[in-house]
Amino acid sequence: MERQGYPSSLEISVTSAGQEKLNKSQRVRHKSVQFEDLFSSEDSPRVIHINDPRRTNEKYEFTGNEIRTSKYTLITFLPKNLFIQFHRLAYLYFLAIAALNQLPPLAVFGRTVSLFPLLFVLFVTAIKDGYEDWRRHRSDRKENNREALVLQSGHFRRKKWKKIRVGEVVKIHGDEAIPCDMVLLGSSDPNGIAYIQTMNLDGESNLKTRYARQEIASMVQEGGSYSGQIRCERPNRNIYEFTANMEFNGQKITLGQSNIILRGCQLKNTDWIVGVVVYAGQETKAMLNSTVSPSKRSRLESYMNRETFWLSVFLSVMCAVVATGMGLWLKRHMHQLDTLPYYRRKYFTNGQANGKYYKYYGIAMEIFFSFLSSIIVFQIMIPISLYITMELVRLGQSYFMIEDMQMYDSSSDSRFQCRSFNINEDLGQIRYIFSDKTGTLTENKMEFRRASLYGKDYGSSTHAGAQGHRWKLKSEINVDPELMALLHKDLVGEERIAAHDFFLTLAACNTVVPITTRDSSASSANEVHEVEAIDYQGESPDEQALVNAASAYGYTLVERTTGHIVIDVNGERIRLDVLGLHEFDSMRKRMSVVIRFPNNAVKVLVKGADSSVLSILKNNQHRDSLADKIKSATENHLTSYSSQGLRTLVIAARNLTDAEFEEWQEMYEEASTSLMERSAKLRQAAALIECNLKLLGATGIEDKLQDGVPEAIESLRQAGIKVWVLTGDKQETAISIGLSCRLLTQNMHQVIINGTSELDCKRLLTEAKERYGIKSANNGNEFLKENFDYEFLDTSCDTRNSNVLIPENGSRTLRYAGDSRDMSEFCGEKRSDLDDTPLALIIDGNSLVYILEKDLETELFDLATSCRVVLCCRVAPLQKAGIVDLIKSRTNDMTLAIGDGANDVSMIQMADVGIGICGQEGRQAVMASDFAMGQFRFLKRLLLVHGHWNYQRIGYLVLYNFYKNAVFVLMLFWYILCTAFSTTSALTDWSSVFYSVIYTSVPTIVVGILDKDLSHKTLLHYPKLYGAGHRQESYNLHIFWITMLDTLWQSLVLFYVPLFTYRNSSVDIWSIGNLWTISVVVLVNVHLAMDIQRWVFITHVAVWGSIIITYMCMVILDSIPIFPNYWTIYHLAISRTYWLTILLITILALLPRFFCKVIQQTFWPSDIQIAREAEILRKLPNQGLKPDCDIS
Fold first, then answer.
1. Is 285 annotated as a binding residue?
2. In which order are the strands placed within the sheet that holds 528-537?
3. What does the pLDDT look like over 1047-1105, one tens digit per residue?
4. Is 437 annotated as a binding residue?
5. Which residues are catalytic?
6. Closest CA to 654 of 615, 613, 695
7. Which among 1019, 717, 927 is positioned nearest to 838, based on CA atoms?
8. Is 729 annotated as a binding residue?
């Protein structure tokens, strides 16, 4: 991620709210606009009376400091949990079924038995939710009962956190946690400095500095009185800004983000601090930001709902057939009802019902009741067990992904993390990857490499810097001997003065905090010298790199307070008064500091992006002046640095006259104390002095590529995945990194869009489309998405080729099976004569402002989807989300976003799959992501191996569950057709219930977790095999209907083979039902065994053990005298016919499937089948192990 200062407030406010869709205006709004909306007027701020909580809370009744993260209480658990669970429509369906079965006319199953499956699922889920919430309650209790020192009656006394109120003064000691959001009043440091760690808040491990205003130092002195009034903004989620004023002793003092310490932080390297509570409990910024990421839904699960709909239609048709048949049968036998069982007027029996009248409701109502009864009998056509099975399988898959040591990053000691368990299979269907650059493709460990100073380039030849005996840096930095020699000359001459100001700017214009420690080092003469080791803590790796470089060249920042800094210049300490600091923001793209030198001279030091600083330099009347030559040389150096992949900054300065300083100071103080539009007013104040600057030079910082990035990108591209890079760096830097990571190649045509207006952008897009013959998408988005869906679902077998295992060389566009029509007809399509030349689109953030805001999105979509590579430079966080939404909203392609920092959160949450990198920029991206890992290169294994496996497994799992339930229901359907449409059952109630829950569930789960069609080595060696997910080979509508046809045949065999076998025997209906039960269990398990690719011991136990357990359950059920099927299994098992019938059913039912598989794999094999065959025959290179030996 790219961040040179504080992150913009916009990304925090937007991402914390978890927005998934952004309208056009939101994509380009600046942070100040969003932030200033948080409070409506200056008349309604929050007023806090220091050390007077009663007066503070009597009017406003601010919330207490007790927090609650739990969902339930003992009273609300049952109703609230059930309400949440029944958001799943399938649960409502089964609840309705169970309710219908309680009615006497519809009681097909036992009333208790019909409730068992639903109650079991609800109970298990409730136990899980209850345990999770109990842990939250325990955590809340522990947090609320912690104690802190609170000022009470003039003394600091212990008080529980939950009883702390707004307005109270709190004292915190070193290494203690902060209980609430507090304005810092003072600290153990004489200058009022406090060091905090925000690891629990944003995940960043580096220390940050907070300051107490010098004007209120007397408040915390011995005997000082705590008084005053604070007016601050309303509670909001923005952790990077704070707007407030304090009134103390008649003074109006401005307070900002550097004066507040937030709940969740920890005090470090400071003995104690004192602060006043401004936000407590649920109103603290930490609690307001504790929202969960937006829930994402698997694409395959949404397709599964489509098939569930078709099964519901099929179920309704079957029920209608039964009901109609019942009506016709009753009509035909109307005059015989008195003599027919179940329909005669009176019961003739020896029981209590003898002589009672049977409740016959008439043909119309009997048809209606028959329809409802049929729904109850056929209910498992919609498999309730599938939801639990999928959750368990995903959990198992996540376990193996987490435990995969090849995705363990030793440098950050981080394992792979699964933060969302419901989209594992989406990893196998990714079409687009949107990647941040800094910290994602690169290491985000900045090293100072080059410097352009006074028109000269330094850094081409360096050696280890001799940093002297006084200061010892944490890491050794190479220095340029020529530049070092210049800096040791007397401060005479323009070049020497420019070099002096250059390094003063590097050391002073930042928010870095120096931390010094004493260290001892031994010299060659065995003498021990005491030196001071210095470490810099900063919020930006860029700033730390620049300050370290300045120290290596003799300009060491040794002290920082709110009012001054101290810089050691070659052994001589210089104290500089800090009169004002304009921090980096995304609009100005620069940072400036106003300082007063010991000789009372006032100067503004500026650093920032070249596009921002070069435009505000002083204009010279003479075109060939020295300043123009320096500027021209510097621009050439900047281009050179960028082409080498270095991150660049321009350094400039300016002396301020007394009049300019007074005008700026007046505006700056007014802006700093404003509660309304403070950010905008501070920008206006900065504009007064950030002009007519003198150019000092430029810097080049190296951010190295992570290991394995080029290889990973190449493999992903061969897999048919398009990789787009969205970066905040300048264009040249992005292009250079693109070349080094093999994203760009030399033979690509680079289409560059750098527009400065709407008309300019439209012209550039139109010209590019005309030049490369790109057709427009003439149809609407919905039509486009439907056609994409059709393309993916109905890809015919003839698009599969058998040469996927042949490596493809050269620079021509990579083609993989089934992708020859990718986006060709419905979005941008290149002319056939230009197909061999790949295109690369390079576009900047300024152009995206006009394109995403105006009606140019379609033009950009056409052009971008026709290009092999897209590089977006200088983009803001919401523009990243806008680019993801551009693809996501116009196609059915799966998108993945990967980043490492706070400004990647909106992009991560917008994409179908979001991945956070555990990098140098904290853990905000990780906390907002679905998955997290330590290095970009792991993405290759995650998608090509685990993504492929997960998609294949889940796809088969869903189809198999539909099959095994449908074959059982159809078997019952044929039986009902032969029993006068009476909805009676030959199976016991418990057998019907146990079929999905016990008899057939375990093998499905085991295969869904452990089965592998190919080894990880094969999948990594041939990335194009990933295309099976793009073509939806494992799960699509075509396969679903073929499976249903196969199910129809198997159900007919199941029903009629026993019927014909025992047609002339005296066997009773419960014995036949017993035979059908064991036959269907054997059949579906052997069916599963035919499709298993990888047999291990657990698989054998699950599949064959399932059949054994079924027999055991049936023996137990048949041994209970009160059941109608009592002792039937014992009579059947001694018959040879029984066992031969089961064998005959299995063979006849699976024979068509077996022949179809043989023919298909012989004459029309898929890429996976070819690779599988080669793997088994050990024909693949580097295949040291059999596939069966491969472990998760």
1. no
2. 471-473, 528-537, 513-522
3. 999 999 999 999 888 888 778 788 888 888 999 999 999 999 999 999 999 999 999 99
4. yes
5. 436
6. 695
7. 717
8. yes
